[in-house]
């Protein structure tokens, strides 16, 4: 069979198995809020070819605010409105590594609310600048453990108490976050794959995406496997691998917005549904940042790259021919001053993790 016929047969098979009907129907949506969700599911061609599995990635960077966190941002605001906690002209206060804050800033602009963000001062300058451009009041504070009263989340909660008609949306423990993915992301994945899905994996910060999607998919088919992907510096890998007995934190990671030092209220109800855990070192994540750009034409951040590495590792465990879905959280433009800087990569001892033929993309000093 010639190459053309083979490619044609593969494309026809994919058309039969998978559909993007829900995301390709052309319709008018109601403002910024109406544009959130219904993102494409992308087949990663080279990654799939190299693994012998079908690796699909939910293009969450195509949300109007640029990340998967748009979904949670909308749902925590809607939850505050539905409970009568937020009145017109009110203020949303949140502690965030950046993307939830960006989503909230967009939603607040669209709905006429003020937005105040507390975030670790370790986050990229691009995120801080964008939040301020969106009209948010931004407070970068020292990065300390959750147990410390000066943790950015606790500072956000205290700030909300001092402002009339203000709500701390508490993304980590507000289960409206998880509900966003149970009601939208999970159903979209199921429909886009026509239910032909063997595994789902992603990293977690708040736990909302992993928990909500996992719960929905396993209710549809209990045989679908769910693996948590975890970067260095997070306790979740040790927690799941030890059956909840260990919470060990070692090292740190270049990734932003993922990893955790505890089991959040979003994740807790679905801990038993997680089948396995994968530890993904920064070296593999940064290599995948450059591979996705070179092989797939996708300009992704490190957390997205980590998720793709996890999908590859999951495919190795589940075996060839399986259909694996992961999340492309956001694009690299929010981190480009670091991820594509030779000086920064050298400072993190990551320059050698990038294949020599991909060094051409290291364009910043």
What does this structure look like?
The strands form two sheets. The chain has a six-stranded mixed beta sheet with strand order 1-2-10-7-8-9. A four-stranded parallel beta sheet has the order 5-4-3-6, sandwiched between helices. The chain is α/β, with parallel strands linked by helices and 365 residues long. 42% of the residues lie in helices and 14% in strands. It contains 15 helices and ten strands. The chain has helices at residues 3-17, 21-24, 31-34, 45-51, 69-82, 99-111, 125-133, 152-162, 176-192, 208-220, 236-241, 282-296, 302-318, 336-339, 342-347; strands spanning 41-43, 54-59, 91-95, 114-120, 137-141, 166-168, 199-203, 225-230, 276-279, 323-328.
């Amino acid at each position: 069979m010639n190459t053309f016929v083979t490619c044609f047969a593969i494309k026809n098979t994919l058309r039969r198995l998978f559909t993007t009907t829900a995301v390709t129907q052309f319709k008018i949506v109601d403002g910024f809020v109406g544009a959130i969700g219904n993102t494409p599911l992308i087949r990663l061609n080279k990654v799939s070819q190299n693994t012998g599995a079908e690796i699909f990635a939910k293009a969450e960077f195509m949300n109007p605010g640029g990340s998967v966190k748009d979904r949670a941002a909308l749902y925590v605001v809607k939850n505050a409105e539905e409970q009568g906690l937020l009145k017109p002209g009110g203020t949303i206060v949140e502690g965030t590594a950046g993307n939830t804050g960006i989503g909230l800033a967009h939603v607040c602009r669209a709905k006429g609310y003020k937005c105040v963000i507390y975030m670790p001062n370790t986050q990229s300058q691009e995120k801080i600048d964008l939040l301020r451009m969106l009209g948010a009041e931004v407070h970068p504070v020292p990065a300390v453990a959750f147990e410390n009263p000066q943790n950015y989340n606790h500072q956000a909660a205290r700030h909300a108490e001092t402002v009339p008609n203000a709500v701390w949306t508490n993304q980590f423990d507000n289960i409206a976050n998880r509900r966003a993915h149970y009601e939208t992301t999970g159903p979209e994945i199921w429909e886009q794959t026509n239910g032909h899905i063997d595994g789902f994996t992603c990293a977690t910060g708040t736990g909302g995406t992993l928990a909500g999607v996992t719960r929905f998919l396993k209710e549809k088919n209990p045989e679908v496997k769910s693996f948590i992907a975890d970067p260095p510096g997070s306790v979740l890998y040790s927690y799941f691998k030890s059956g909840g007995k260990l919470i060990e934190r070692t090292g740190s990671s270049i990734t932003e917005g993922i990893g955790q030092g505890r089991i959040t209220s979003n994740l807790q109800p679905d801990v038993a549904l997680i089948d396995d855990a994968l530890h993904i070192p920064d070296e593999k994540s940064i290599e995948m940042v450059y591979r996705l750009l070179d092989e797939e034409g996708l300009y992704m951040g490190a957390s997205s790259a980590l998720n793709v590495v996890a999908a590859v590792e999951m495919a190795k465990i589940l075996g060839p021919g399986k259909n694996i879905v992961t999340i492309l959280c956001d694009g690299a433009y929010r981190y480009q001053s670091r991820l594509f800087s030779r000086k920064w990569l050298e400072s993190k001892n990551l320059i050698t993790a990038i294949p020599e033929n991909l060094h051409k993309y290291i364009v910043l000093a």
